[in-house]
Amino acid sequence: MDAQQLFEKHAPMVYNLALRLSGNAADAQDIAQDAFIKAMKGLAGLRDEAFAGTWLYRITVNVWKNRVRAEKRRAFWKTFSLDWGKDNGDEPPALQVAAVEPGPGEALEKADEKQALEQALAALEPEDRAILLLRETDGRSYEEIAGIMELQLGTVKSRISRAREALRQRMTALLKEDGTR
What we know:
mainly alpha, 7 helices
């Protein structure tokens, strides 16, 4: 597989993962670009083309983790936002969900729940957030996540379980604070 084929086949996947991890389009573009630069440098070392997707996921997650560490050191890491619904100009949104017209009260409640989810996700440790997004948003298997994150399978399972529980507790607390539940 040459560099052009790798890019054409996996660019949307890499960008969408970077967008979900970083929370905004500008950072996602930077992360995706850095991930492909690293991938191009290491392309000769890719032994099995069947694992190119997992390999690129690992590179993307590592680029994001390094960015988070650097931002924490510089004290720039403040919030995490899931801003999937924003208009990106001519580009299609990263995530499209079939619309069902909610009533006015239901729409308000959903907005509160989305905001609570964003806050709860932001409060998770970066690695836990990444593992949870890989599992719940991308539908990756535990084995794939272990390969991407370079962790043992048991560690992935326990972290997903802990992250789900932490997310559930934070969501419950945030929704109670808002008085929506």
